[in-house]
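Summary for the lay section of the report: proteins are chains of building blocks that fold into shapes. Here we show the chain for Probable class IV aminotransferase and then a coded description of the shape we predicted for it.
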Amino acid sequence: MKAAPVAARRHRRAAMSAPILSKELPMIPGMPGDSQVYLNGEFTRLDEAKISVLDRGFIFGDGIYEVVPVYDGKVFRMTEHLNRLDRSLAALRIAAPMDRAGWESVIAGLIARSAQPTCIIYLQVTRGVCKRDHAFPTEPVAPTVFGMAAAFSPPGAAQRTQGLSAIAIDDERWLHCEIKSVSLLGNVLAKQQAVDAGVDEVVQFRDGWLTEGSSTNIWVVSGGKLLAPPKNNLILEGIRYGLMGELAEAAGLPFEARRISREEVAAADELMLTSATKEVLPIVRLDGKAVGAGKPGPVYEQLRAGYDARIAAL
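The coded shape description reads as follows.
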């Protein structure tokens, strides 16, 4: 009998040694299979929600997302979050799959079906399912719309009173960070640098100028003034960006959005980060060195109190 070609034999050996993958969905801690999610017009069980492997969000990361915090069943800054969602859709030229009332109905439905009254609502829209091609589909394609409620624990006393640590790194992401895109590999790699260094977050710089964290906005206090990088294509305008300006004004703190050098950050009196899930927290160590006095500062305390008051007023 004639021996099979070498390539064929190698292929068979590789196939025999390949792991047998289960078609069962893996259990995800904190997300039971019977959790209710929203997918393309319907609420369904998490373990029954399915999308095509040809979805452009899966193939290309061609989509956008939004994260909306909910406290005791009440949505925080819903208008601002939905405004940003609309901006991201427009930037990618994805037609809005529903109007504002539709989004509010989806969010309300997810909250009502959630076992946790304090949670985050995750919304995602991709360009939809079509033949794999880098260019946008030429024929109309329905976007894929997904939403879920996930457990959310606001920052605890230790983080609020002891603060966080961070390292400074170069910002190596793309040039459209203003879009809340699901293409997050640059952010993922940046966050992993923080994990590998044993710190909570990274503070990123592009050409020596402050941009943001891996998933947070960064704030600098210098000489009694609150500083933030300018809103442009190099940062995602966090919803707390506008809120922090409001809180600073209410507290009588000068606020300025401008370019901030790496040297200014290193010499800051205080550093803070903000995000939907981190709220506002102090960074007390950067690259192993104390920031200011090495503890949460007075400006942070003022802004934190104002933030808490906004949540309590919902």
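Put simply, here is one thing we learned. Residues 85 and 142 are 17 Å apart (CA to CA).
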